[in-house]
Amino acid sequence: MGYRRIKLRSSLLDKRFFVILNYFAHLYFAQPTVASTVGNLLGDFAKGVDVQGLPESIKAGLYNHRAIDRYTDKHPIIIDLKNIFNPRRRRFAGIALDVYFDHLLMNHWEAFDSRPVDEVIQTYYARMLEGQALMPNAHMRITTRRMVEYDWFSSYVEIESIAEALDRIASRIRFKNQFANAIEDLERSRELLQQGFLSFFPQLIEHVRSLAIESKGADTL
Question: Which residues are CB-neighbours of 206 under 8 A, at least 6 positions away?
Answer without folding.
Answer: none
